[in-house]
Amino acid sequence: MNETALLIAAALASGTPLVLAGLGLLLNEKAGVLNLGAEGMMLVAAIAGFAAAFHTGEAAVGFVAGAAAGAGMAAVFGLLVIWLNTNQYATGLALSLFGTGFSAFVGVSMVGKKLEDQTPNAVPLLSDIPFFGPAFFQLHPMVYAAMALAALMAWFLYRSRAGLVLRAVGESPAAAHALGYPVRRIRFLAVLVGGALCGVAGAFLSVVYAPLWVQGLVAGRGWIALALTAFATWRPARVLLGAYLFGGVTMMQFALQSAGVQIPSQLLAMLPYLATIVVLVLISRNPVWIRVNMPASLGKPFHPGG
């Protein structure tokens, strides 16, 4: 019973960076911008967050540095695709490749260094409940913050005027422009916030989850977060559910290994990515369902007056 509780807690922690990055990418895509550079942004944010936390001794500083690094890379991406009208797919891939190489280059001096393990913050009274306490109420504050963020984003998108305008920009930027809304600025702001969330996700990996820096630390989570937005039909609550599902699959490999299951470790390490491929295959079998849920202008450039 205790092992199951610990497995649940580990799955929630493992899914948290996917929640943060997935919500950031969802915000981008709701505005009609497809950013394939999540992996690169998370890697640069991971080394920025780790270096900041290592030199200051403050995890909070690491999160701020990660958010700033993610937003900075997103700003470059936004400038290129929104104002210079470069191809969103090619620019996003270039951003991912750049982030991979740049993080490896600047992080050479940080390899081998390690932060102190972050002590989980036990929720008073609730953390003492058998099974439920260790499973749900002895986690890092960022785990709860990610859950709250999903609820806040759902409210923003579907209950606020600003969220309605953002979705209108993603569905029909020409119509939104005709009504007087600054489509390009709205998209750019969405890209910035999305990049910052991807940055916080990367910082969480290097500051809390690991907590260390190695080349390729993100290990494909940026790509999983991209797939997660489609899996979740572009809805925040489903991003939360899907992220924890992928987190559970990731933790399953360690649970099976500790249980002595005779399966090659390489095959177990493939489980999260196999799950991603299966989900994408299932989604692609129903193109009508994709058209109904996907923002109509996703990936399409907008030229005011053009």
TrEMBL record:
One of its GO terms (molecular function) is transmembrane transporter activity. The chain crosses the membrane at residues 6-26, 33-54, 60-84, 91-111, 131-158, 188-207, 213-232, 239-257, 263-283. GO terms for cellular component: plasma membrane. InterPro entries: ABC_transp_permease (IPR001851). It is a multi-pass membrane protein. CDD domains: TM_PBP1_transp_TpRbsC_like. It is found in: Cell membrane. It comes from the Bacteria. Keywords: Cell membrane, Membrane, Transmembrane, Transmembrane helix. This is Putative transmembrane ABC transporter protein. It comes from Hylemonella gracilis ATCC 19624. The lineage of its organism: Bacteria, Pseudomonadati, Pseudomonadota, Betaproteobacteria, Burkholderiales.
